[in-house]
Amino acid sequence: MIDSLQRSLRSRPLLVDAALAVVLFAWSFPGSLITIPGRAPGIPWWPGVLLTGVSCAVLLRRRTRPRTTVALLLVSATATIALGYLVTALLLGPLMVALHSLAVRTDRRTANTYAFTGIALLIGTALITGPGSEPLVLKVLSPAFWLLLPTSLGTVTRLHRAYVEAVQARAEHAERTREEEARHRVTEERMRIARDLHDVVAHHLVLANIQAGTVARFLRTRPEEAERIVAELTGTTSSALRELKATVGLLRDTNDPEELPESTPGLAELPELTSSFAGAGLTVTVTAVGEPRPLSAGADLSAYRIVQEALTNVTKHAATRTAEVRLAYSHDRLSISITNDGSRRPANSPVPNSGYGLIGMRERARSVGGKLHALPRARGGFEVVTELPLEPRPVEESAAP
C-alpha cells in the first residue's frame, strides 16, 4: 500500500508541490507574530504574511527551475528581514525547502554557492536593519544554521541516490554480462558439437562409401575379399552410430546413467583410428619422438579429431595409399604432423585447404591454446601441422635431476 501511494505521489508532482506550499504557508504564518522576549512587535503582521504567500507560490517551480526559485526566495527572505521580522525557521521555511531541492537536483558546488550567498545576504541585512536589541548570536548563527541544514541534507540525499543508481547499474551490467557469457558458452558448445558431428559423419561416411564401392567391385571377382570388407563396413557403421549417440547425447539434459555419453576419444585410440583407414585402402604410419606426456582432456580430444579429419581428407582428396602421422613431444608442447605424398584427385575434388574441415581443425586447435596450419608440400602431397599445449610437469618431476 505504501509503495502504491509513493508511485501515485510521484506521478502527480504538481499536486504534491501545491500541498507542500499550503503546509508551508500555515507553518510560516506564525513567524510574523514572533518577537524578541520583552519587546512588543513594531511592525504589522500582514507584510510577512504577504511575502510568505508569494514565497510559497514560487515553490511550485522548484522542480523545473531550482536556481530561479532559490534566487526569488532569497529576495523575499531578505525583504522580510529588512522589515524587522525575527529570523526563525518559520519565516525561512520556503527558502529551506528550495535549498534542499537545489542541492538534490544540482551539484555540490552550485548548492553551496547559493547557500553561502544567502547566508551572507541575510546576515548582512539582519546586522544593518535588524533591531539593536536582538542578540548578535541570533542575527549571525540563526541564518547560517537554517540555510546550511537543508543544503547538507539535500547533498546527502543526492549522493545516496547516486550511490543507489550506481549499484543498480552495476547489478544490471553484471546481469547482462552473465546472460551474454551464458549465451557465449552455449554458442561455443553448439560449435563444438557441430565440429564433432562433422568429424564423425565425414570420417565414417567416407570410409563406408569407399568400402561399399570396393565391395561392389570385388563382389564377383573376389568374393572372399568382398566378404571381409563387408564385415569391416559393418564395424564402420557401428562405430559411427556409437560416436553419433555419444555426441548427440551431449544435447540432452538427463540424469539417467544409461543416457550419459561415452568417454571422449583421445590419442590413446590412435591405433584403432589409423587401422580403420585400412579398409579404405590407406596405410597410415605413426611415429613418436620424445617422451610421451599427457594432454588435457580438451587437447587430447582435439588432437584425435584433427588427426581423424586430416586422414579423412587424405582419403577423400589425395591420390595416394599412404600417409604418415608424426608426434613430437617437447617440454611444453606436442607437435602433430599429418602428411601424404599423393597429388590431388582431379575429378571434382575440392581444394584441400578449403571447406569446413580445415576450419574446424583450426578452431579446435585454438580452443585449447594451440595453433594449426595446412599447406601443400613442395615435393607433392599435403601437410597438416598442429601444436597443442601439454599438461605441466609435476613439481617433484621437474625438480628431479
UniProtKB/TrEMBL annotation:
Keywords: ATP-binding, Kinase, Membrane, Nucleotide-binding, Phosphoprotein, Transferase, Transmembrane, Transmembrane helix, Two-component regulatory system
Organism name: Streptomyces sp. R21
Transmembrane segments: 14-37, 43-60, 72-99
Any one GO CC term of the record: membrane
Pfam name, any one: DUF7134
Record keyword Transmembrane helix present: yes
Domain of life: Bacteria
Domain Histidine kinase/HSP90-like ATPase intervals: 302-391
Cited InterPro entries: DUF7134, HATPase_C_sf, HATPase_dom, Sensor_HK_TwoCompSys, Sig_transdc_His_kin_sub3_dim/P
GO molecular function terms noted in the UniProt entry: ATP binding; phosphorelay sensor kinase activity; protein dimerization activity
EC id: 2.7.13.3
Enzyme class: transferase
Known catalytic reactions: ATP + protein L-histidine = ADP + protein N-phospho-L-histidine
Residue span(s) of domain DUF7134: 6-122
Residue span(s) of domain Signal transduction histidine kinase subgroup 3 dimerisation and phosphoacceptor: 189-254
This protein's name: histidine kinase
Matches recorded under PANTHER family: NITRATE/NITRITE SENSOR PROTEIN NARX-RELATED, NITRATE_NITRITE SENSOR PROTEIN NARQ
